[in-house]
Design goal:
500 residues, alpha/beta, Rossmann fold, 2 domains, binds 3,4-dihydroxybenzoic acid
Length: 500
Amino acid sequence: MKNTIIALTMACGLSTTVMASTTTQKPYTLDFNPQNYQLEQLEINGKPLKVRAYTNIVYVKNPVDIKYEVMNIYIPDAYFNQQEVNGFNAQNAPIFFPNEVGGYMPAQPATLVGRKMGGRGPTGQNKPIETANPPSTAAYALYQGYVVASAGARGRTSTTGKAPAAIVDLKAAIRYLKYNDKKMPGDANKIISNGTSAGGAMSALLGATGDSKDYLPYLKKLGAANTSDRIFAVSAYCPITNLDHADMAYEWQFNSIHDYKKINMSMLDYKVERKETAGVLSQAQILVSNDLKAQFPNYVNQLGLVSPQKQPLQLAQDGNGSFKDLIKQYLIKSAQTAIDQGQDLSQYTWIKREGQRVIDINYDDYLVYLQRMKTPPAFDALDLSSGENQEFGTEQIDKQHFTAYGFEHSTAKGTLADAHIVKMMNPMNYIGQKQVHTSAYWRIRHGAYDKDTSLAVPVILATKLQNTGAHVDFALPWGKPHSGDYDLDELFAWINQISR
Ligand code: DHB
């Protein structure tokens, strides 16, 4: 898919079309109407594909915000004519469920056209995409024969979009798909969620928390379909997750790095913008970093994780131990894969090699190369200035703390978020729990050049899943910054393999 010429032509307008369903009065219907579509003509690499586009479907009976609680569903036209696409048919086609959540902001559903900015398109990387009309990940997925359903979700900037609104919305959309399974081509038992960053966190939460009762009161209030919300598989790129332990994980990793390049996120036309400010940690921030770093070994040790070789994963109070060794092993594997694929890593003298074989990585030098991006605490900011502080606000209070440390050291007299809501935002609390249907298949990617959260966060998630019997395809792709959807060929190969 790389280096190919892409053209995307649309038979009709796309995102401006509001279907009749969004203008009707509450309660909205949960019944999918197969007749209410527009025919779109896609063309990628000279290959045409006809698609039925069902856009702006309100997916709950009593929405709070119909700008976001809407779903776009795209179905290959072939599935209405008893034909196949890529060996799939109307009965067995998996449903690809990409979300566009970024920065814990509100998100509209994905369309067939990729974003020009923002790093959620197939080029990833948060750079402007030069092509006039780049096809989206959703468009590529249709060529694989998947039905695509993308739901919008509320987010932190609206009083009614605070945690757990985004995950509740996405669950409600899953329920809509299950409820309408018989009326729609595609197999709602084969839903594969995809997301990047905060969207990766949402994807992981969907996979971890299937049918958990914790979300029921919220789902009922919205009038979500009364059915299951478990999903088949999860694809998560650089999930910004495990937020209540991410501060200690960040300082465990970056404690020795005092220079930082902080990125302030803002929103422009629903596209997350990232602006860099350089600085050096103050003495007070170094003390906070030391405090947080010291908390991390206890957290890791009480998880009782074991490595793929069944060795206990632990950390001593100084932060060293088998858990850190496992992270190094993943980095060594990442460098080896890059070299095997022909990348030249010879400039990184801290990668120790014997010929073409990577035998070790100097972890401290790796951290110097990686650099620190966030100041401590990275997520629960003491002055309530982080996006996550806003995510854990309420209808009345815009920003709150969500860790004991943040609350106790608040410089803004911040209040503490409800512990049950903090629980509902962390997939770690649900994986392997009784009466919760955690997905069996996971693909997690976190770039080895990504410093938006500690490498420990995705490693803990992947390991917990492995330890509870899930199939986990996990890697730290070399040189990749905070981004997603950069390896769609591999992602789709994985989906094809698990769903046939
Ligand atoms: C995202 C990035 C962050 O660094 C963060 O703290 C939260 C969300 C994002 O890109 O979605």
